[in-house]
Amino acid sequence: SIDAARFLGRLAALAEIGRDGQGRRTRLAASDADRAGRDLVTGWMREAGLDVRVDRIGNLIGLWDPSGTGSGPVMMGSHIDTVIDAGAYDGCTGVLAGLAVIEALRAAGDVPTRPLALAAFTNEEGVRYAPDMLGSLVYAGGLSVEAALATVGTDGTVLGEELARIGYAGSEAPGTLRPHAYLELHVEQGPVLEREGVAIGAVEDLQGISWQEVTIEGAANHAGTTPMDLRRDAGVAAALLVAWLRERAGAGNGRSVATVGRLRLEPDAINVIPARAVLTIDLRDPDAGRLAAFEADLRQRLDGLARRENVTVTVRRLARFDPVTFDSGIVRRIEAAARARGLSVRRMTSGAGHDAQMMARLCPAAMIFVPSIGGISHSPAERTADADLVAGAAVMLDVVRDLCGT
Amino acid sequence: SIDAARFLGRLAALAEIGRDGQGRRTRLAASDADRAGRDLVTGWMREAGLDVRVDRIGNLIGLWDPSGTGSGPVMMGSHIDTVIDAGAYDGCTGVLAGLAVIEALRAAGDVPTRPLALAAFTNEEGVRYAPDMLGSLVYAGGLSVEAALATVGTDGTVLGEELARIGYAGSEAPGTLRPHAYLELHVEQGPVLEREGVAIGAVEDLQGISWQEVTIEGAANHAGTTPMDLRRDAGVAAALLVAWLRERAGAGNGRSVATVGRLRLEPDAINVIPARAVLTIDLRDPDAGRLAAFEADLRQRLDGLARRENVTVTVRRLARFDPVTFDSGIVRRIEAAARARGLSVRRMTSGAGHDAQMMARLCPAAMIFVPSIGGISHSPAERTADADLVAGAAVMLDVVRDLCGT
Ligand SMILES: NC(=O)NCCC(=O)O
Ligand SMILES: NC(=O)NCCC(=O)O
């Protein structure tokens, strides 16, 4: 069974890696902090007897093949990069639970027929480099290694150069190891499980994601002398857009969400009308048609805004993923494993993006969720109870045992 | 008469000082660029035979006292600091026209009864350190030198330390030289003179200015998993505020203006609901009562916003100046001087803040405006025709001659 103390101790140790200048936990992909996290996790993987490889996009893959079959492994995984001012659980839970599962099988003397693999994928969060889930997307063949390595970050860095700099630009072609199945344990990051008092989420699908960057160009002018009706204020246009997005998301059937997480004004001076605004838009919906309709409305809105506010608007696509349906067989196995352990379980939709959604292109895949206290994530206030973390890892252990045929 | 070639040549030379990393003209107060500008202007003042002093807040004061009376000088002045990505005329026009006026009097062999003084005041723009017109405010006794030197800038620097660093922290107490009268030539920075085809503005008053910094605290959470109705989105609250300010300013009788020039989100990540927004609000109105009413409405609005959006709002006052009425006698002299030169002239209100509004606390003061092409200022597109600049300087020469009794 899962060594809870070791699993939770490692989670706590990894959580200490990567405080930024303001004391916030910020382990952006391919940063120095990410390197420190990777070094720690690689060490643990080796201690657990895994053969660790790094592929060209920096994905860490640990392999345990006790039967020497070399055939398609059962893969577990997630990521260890974080957002800015992040919590301790997002991503790390899945990687370290996967490690705990392999260690539990070894400790029990199990000799699985199929190999087991553990992945820590590069740049899942998408905060430094877009799109999110970049490492697993490349692994699954959805983006070329070359294009991915050339990605320019929010700080102007190039992903390939940063991976080389931190010593995690491997030589192996991503996706060489083709899994038999993929499983990912993750904190829910939303309010559903806690609100319903359910211990385990069997994730059967994952909503669509649309990321765009909008640049609005108006004209700088003097804040005191320029009449309101003669202004071409890029900041006002951006504000009207943010307000509309909130209305539009709230107006539907309550499933669409819209977020403007970044917004920058130029020249950014108190008495200068903003000449330019650059903002990001994150739209999501579990239904592909509804997501596309929201995007179409947004395009129309931007046209109208440009006309009415006398500004120009340009849009850059940062990420676009349709909703994903997970493998129903694995979802049923998760439900069965939870029930067999006396844990309450429900099927659910993932609101967040996950590496599992990319791996689902390659092999049967599904996810196990555990409750997030207060539904909080992407925040230092992110929490999951120890017992829930260990229960989730135990369910994953049972499903893996089931899938790899010991 | 005014040496147009020298005046315009210096304006062009000063305009080249202070390109920032992006090639923009950015000569923020007490920066390295400001030092270079000050060095240039100080050299020109000395060439013109002025006795140049620097006071404790860094104001440059050049004195010409040919009769050796030592009594209250007629002072001209303005500033040479700029906003970010600025034009070439704002402030520099007044300083260099003042220099040209003194040189014209010397060249003509005039020996004025009263001394003449020329000031280049510190930090008029208020972009790096608030409030704006800081140097002339201190000069006029409206703010203590100690408080002013302790001002923390938008970049975290302390004004006193920066003045010392660039070698412009003088030893003289500001305001020692008490002027008999103060005159400032400035580009209008707005559309009125050009629209009406008028050459000279005799500025009879200047609108009130209210600057506030608003901090909105919500809660970070995940952009994909957090339902719209459970969010505490500081960015949405900021956007609703910006939209309201525009409505409120436009709704009045068309005289109030409101600008949000700065807006910063934290943590500033694409898939994180903003936990915090910090923005500046610049409100202006020529009428004291209307400005106060706008401020009162804003306070109410912020309270409502905090309640409805479940955020906390704190406000920091950055600047507050009531409308100023200039000296009617000097205004009449400006009108008369313009007419005597065959120039069209109108009385007008200044939409921008100016050092003259602070000097009006000390002595009779007024301003001369010349047209801004397209009404543009606080922008690299700021322009005034050469002929208009020279006409404005000539009118100032006549009024100064009148005031200083040659
Ligand atoms: N799980 C998670 O937070 N992934 C980051 C990508 C996204 O959903 O925004
Ligand atoms: N004249 C001028 O642009 N002054 C700066 C202060 C302000 O009015 O915003």
From TrEMBL, chains A, B:
Q: Which cofactor does it need?
A: Zn(2+)
TM ranges are none
The alphabetized UniProt keywords are: Hydrolase, Metal-binding, Zinc
User: Sorted alphabetically, which SUPFAM superfamilies does this protein's record hold?
Assistant: Bacterial exopeptidase dimerisation domain (SSF55031), Zn-dependent exopeptidases (SSF53187)
Q: Give the molecular function GO annotations.
A: hydrolase activity, acting on carbon-nitrogen (but not peptide) bonds, in linear amidines; metal ion binding
Q: Which Pfam families match?
A: M20_dimer (PF07687), Peptidase_M20 (PF01546)
Residues the entry annotates as binding Zn(2+) 2: 90, 125, 378
Domain Peptidase M20 dimerisation per the UniProt entry, residue ranges: 207-306
Q: Where does Zn(2+) 1 bind?
A: 79, 90, 186
Similarity comment: Belongs to the peptidase M20 family.
The name under which this protein is listed is Zn-dependent hydrolase
